Amino acid sequence: MAERPRGRPRSFDRDAALDRAMRTFWERGYEGASVAELTRVMGIGAPSMYAAFGDKRTLFEECVTAYGERYGGFAARALAEEPTAREAVARVLREAAAEYTAPGRPRGCMIISAAVNYPDAAEDVAQGLRVRRAERVRAFENRIREDVEAGRLPADTDARGLARFVATVVQGMSQQARDGADRETLETVADLALRAWPSAP
pTM value? Predict the structure, then answer.
């Protein structure tokens, strides 16, 4: 006779609970989302949360990964699919305007805003998000360097500075969205930012 599995089966939808936790972190930030609030919105008790997701930090890391897969992957896709760095950046900014103001979910970017103010105990959380943002800057920089090497951008283009400029615009658009800016307003910001792009040689 086969052994019965130990313990009771989970009585909740793990993916749905993860999505609700992610939206709470996205809206309130890492420090602003208490375990009590997380378990309330997830519809489970603290023991079930710890059993299914680990502690708050582990849950947050899984939420960050889920955010990237579900909502934050538009920049990587644009960089991989567009034929030039300018077209990729134009698409990133255009899609950021849409994504950061999409109805039915928190505004802005979770990776940018989830750990703005934090105590020393959460420094590792903030550092993890900084690493992700730095990776995005490097991705912009690498794409720009490719165009410099291919002659699509002037040889003296400051690839690192230009990448930082793009990242700064994206971060600013995220904060503006959280402050209430609508999609049209952010699209105007995107159009103005593109005017700073170096002209082809």
Answer: 0.86
